[in-house]
Amino acid sequence: MLKRNQNSANLKAGYLFPEIARRRREFATSHPEARLISLGVGNTTEPLPPHICAGLARGATMLGAAESYSGYMDEGLPALRKRINAVFYDNKHAIDEIFISDGAKCDIGRLQLLFGSDVHVAVQDPSYPVYVDGSVLVGAAGGATANGYAGISYLPCTAENDYFPDLSKIESNSLIYFCSPNNPTGAAATKAQLQSLVAAALKTGSLIIFDAAYSEYIRDRALPKTIFDIEGADSCALEVNSFSKSAGFTGVRLGWTVVPKKLKFAGGESVNADWSRVMSTIFNGASNIAQSGGLAALSDTGLKEIKALTDFYLGNAALIRGALEKLNISCVGGDNSPYIWAHFPKQDSWSMFERILEKCHVVTTPGSGFGPAGESFIRFSAFGRRSDVEEACVRLADFKAPK
Ligand code: PL4
């Protein structure tokens, strides 16, 4: 018999989202009369807009004709890489710095292979659980402690620091995960804040994995949508992004990662070259149908459709935040992000999750699932059909949070 990988054994409990799904199923079984509404997992609900959908269909049709058939496309469609460079980065990158993938989460998992187990990790607390759990899986997190893992610096993001962490807590040579607009707090970092993040990374010899999965939700024009708007970032940061939350590709699967050639390991070796090696070794390219859809999504018409889709979800966010604020629940987020971060002082997150489920039949996400600083918060996702969101708001109006 083979021995279990100790890194898997080191993972605490189950992954957050399947655990929520499990509790939801359990509740539905014991309350068959309840019509549950999900404001929990950040999963898109709206149909694909026509131009983007036609791009996907075109990709499938092309596969059916000898002259347009394509097989493996390891590095990604050159036209898509060029368009990503133009739309998101003002053409400032070389094309071989942009790698097309099957989504941001998959790239985050693979990126961890670049740094192995001998790296110190720093995360915003709270943050998307994949950063911590993925670090545990590659053996970079150290042993479990009461509140997390010994090898990880948790950088609290709270109301007191306006949801931007104290960067002086970053240790030398850290791998820093930073997500803006943030999941779950909804906080979008200002240009000055990202400048201080880049300065801190350069000073400590750290590398930033910048997760920009929600950048298309930024409406305040003063807020940067990419870390590469910040001078010096190409020497200390790489960026992952995705079509999931902008174009509704959560199930289609398409994303990208930008790895600047200026980015080096301590010995001067190229991070870009290693990433290319990792990708060509354990990834066989994104679906060519998805890439055809991605190209349509980044056309002028597609970008208008993305704006309309993200506006729609931000409209949901405004309704949810309004309903919570009517109850005097203190909230942030929802303005430049699809998540609302609601505070229930002195309450335990999982108890609040259960209470909202029981009283309102609304599924949410407990803040503590995103890190210790998320305790006593609940994340409300704005991904939902409008009628469901409206109904959830009506139900929440009668909700009484315990004092
Ligand atoms: C549930 C900060 C959602 N099963 O779709 P991808 O892989 O391009 O992007 C995933 C992703 C990347 N980065 C951030 C994210 O928040 C997400 C998606 N997060 C959520 O509710 O927090 C979906 C979670 C999914 C999962 O585990 O990712």
Question: How would you describe this protein?
Answer:
The protein is α/β, with parallel strands linked by helices and 403 residues long. The protein has 2 domains: 10-47 and 302-396, Aspartate Aminotransferase, domain 1 (Alpha-Beta Complex), CATH 3.90.1150.10; 51-299, Aspartate Aminotransferase, domain 2. The chain contains 13 helices and 13 strands. The protein has helices spanning 6-10, 16-30, 50-63, 78-89, 104-115, 130-137, 191-204, 244-247, 271-282, 288-297, 300-326, 349-360, 386-397, and strands spanning 37-38, 98-101, 120-125, 152-156, 174-179, 207-211, 237-242, 255-258, 330-333, 339-343, 362-363, 365-366, 377-381. The strands form 3 sheets. It has a 7-stranded mixed sheet, with helices on both faces. Strands 9-10-13-12 form a 4-stranded antiparallel sheet. Strands 1-11 form a two-stranded parallel ribbon. Helix 7 (191-204) links the parallel strand 5 (174-179) and strand 6. Helix 3 (50-63) packs antiparallel against helix 10 and helix 11 packs parallel to helix 13 (386-397). The mean pLDDT is 97. Ligand PL4 is lined by residues 17, 41-42, 103-106, 128, 179, 183, 211, 213, 242, 244, 250, 255.
